[in-house]
Amino acid sequence: MNILGINAYHGNASAAILCDGKLVAAVEEERFNRVKYAAGFPAAAIRYCLQAAGVTAAEIDHVAVPRNPYARLGTKLFYALRMPSFARERAKVLAKFTGIREALARALDIAPQDLRAKFHRVEHHVAHLASTFYCSPFEAAALLSADGLGDFASSMWGSSFGRRMNFFGAVAFPRSLGLYYSAVTQYLGFLKFGDEYKVMGLGAYGDPEFLPEFREIVRSNGARFHLGLEYFTHHRTGPEMSWAEADKTPVLGRMYSDEMPRKLGPARVPEEPIDQRHKNLASSLQVRLEEVYLGMLERLQRETGLKSVCLAGGVAFNCVANGKIPLSTGFENIYVHPAAGDAGLAVGAAQFVWHQVLGHPRDFSMEHAYWGPEFSRDEIRTATSSSRLGPSGCSISELPEQELLRKTAAIIADGKILGWFQGRAEWGPRALGNRSIVADPRRPEMKEILNRRIKHRETFRPFAPSILAEKTGEWFEQAHPSPFMTMAYAVKREKRDKIPAPTHVDGTGRLQTVTANANPRYWRLISEFERQAGVPVVLNTSFNDNEPIVCKPVEAIDCFERTQMDALVIGDFLITRS
Ligand SMILES: [Fe+2]
User: Fold this and answer.
1) How far, in Å, from the CA of 77 to the mean position of ligand 1?
2) CA distance 145 to 162
């Protein structure tokens, strides 16, 4: 039985396929069309999933779509009457969804009647919750989806036992923690879709001086929260997320009202220098988010009495807040889906159909995030030999693994910057050791070097550490696994000067805990680096330069040639500059 999950007509368009309940492939459209957070219909992602599973269009039994136009219909109608422009926008999106069978047929180059699949609509947050619970190793868990907006709700919570999910409550439009974070992100001059994580990084440089003001902007009475709507516009105009068919880049309309600068001072213009006030605003934004988010989780733990929690939704990417869950709530075990944002809906919707609609028991947990395209030795050899690497004086050698790892670890320990491309591409926005740029964490100057030579990004943003999972407790104040870089913990004080490059200004690191099971070759590389350099940690940043993470060998080679990376490993091939 083959179930195709499709997240379409929204940012982070993606596809996933389950064959007899087992996840076989999952990938975001951006990896193919090279448009960051690409919206629209994920035609290339779907084609890849079918090819990886060896499934033809006619063999798709079910298609799961994570949107239900009938969810919260009353609220939708109420706002549609008040906001005609919003209603028009919704109607356009709805029309696209009703044509999804035709769009799928077009993507697969067949007639719509040749698709025999049954189509299912799964509510947005139900799909988020399914994506995290059904991928978790827990038999029973509390569930929270915390998000911007989907099917007119921003959050949903409940609990799960076995294969059944039960939902206790939801927060409906216009109240939204995600939209709160997005609006203040815009006010701070970061206008691109997905810029929230930059502001989260900025917050570490400030003090929460504006916390009293932010408690007015998000009001809570313990369990519930409300937005001070006078500071926002989305309840009047609708949260405007649009994209042009031609380029697929999602764009958000302005979400804060003139009341916000009246309350907090002038909004920052993009490109304006970042001063201490901006840093304090970012810190206050973050601290208020944590108060409300951790408060919701603390109550959920008390109500369910459960020790495990599964998280998804855009807010679940807030690794700073997630790192505080074990300290501030009674939850001891945490699972965050690696694609906690809307890309993950493709997996969640498909799993919901398999377990909850069709009633199959669970026998899968997602312990690694390598569900994307991979390339054979021959494809890699062809990509390297047909590139300009040889003619431009690079040396290319194919090496047995031990020699490859020994030389690669030495390159890193020598302060060189390494592109590291292995196996299947990561699912979700984080590079986790298969499409990564790796560097020496011991060198304080490495952060500046990476920013200047390779990444061309804001200097305040931190880089992340990958650590051998079994060494986590020796280096960090907490040892709970973080295989998908969704938690930030304090680096132990005595270790901070040993790994300064991926230690953020507040002493934390957004770590990836690497196990020999989840990624054997990356684990062995870090082990070899530890043998040579004395630390079981490497600095890991995504393999890209202001673009989606590279997917194919040719893109890795192109990024290597464009930037000033020193060495590149693709599969068993080591490429160094002369
Ligand atoms: Fe969402």
Assistant:
1) 21
2) 19
Amino acid at the residue 375: F
* Cα-to-centroid distance, 151 and ligand 1 (Å): 9
DSSP string of 473-534, one letter each residue: HHHBS--S--TTS-EEEEBPGGGTTTS-TTS-TTSEEEEEEE-TTT-HHHHHHHHHHHHHHS
Q: How confident is the model at residue 71 (pLDDT cuts 50, 70, 90)?
A: confident
How far is ligand 1, taken at its centre, from the CA of residue 463, in Å? 26
* Per-residue CA distances from 503 to 153, 189, 198, 507 (Å): 36, 25, 16, 6
Lowest mean pLDDT among 58-67, 242-251, 434-443: 242-251
Asked if 28 contacts 250 with a C-beta cutoff of 8 angstroms, the reply is no
Distance 177 CA to ligand 1 centre (A): 12
Alpha carbon separation from 295 to 64, 288, 437 (Å, rounded): 33, 11, 37
pLDDT at 72 over 90: no
- Structure tokens of 407? 């030389």
* Tokens, residue 21: 């309940």
Query: Could you tell me the distance, in angstroms and rounded to a whole number, from the CA of residue 205 to the centre of ligand 1?
Result: 29
> Among residues 408, 458, 460, 468, which one has the least CA distance to residue 437?
408
- Reference 34, options 544, 574, 489; nearest CA is 544
* DSSP state for residue 452 in the 8-state scheme: I
- 76: tokens are 């939708």
Contacts of 520 (CB under 8 A, 6+ apart): none
Q: Ligand 1 centre and the CA of 124: distance in Å?
A: 6
Residue 67 alpha carbon to ligand 1 centre in Å: 10
pLDDT by residue (tens digit) across 12-28? 999 999 999 999 999 99
Give the span between the Cα atoms of 462 and 230, in whole angstroms: 33
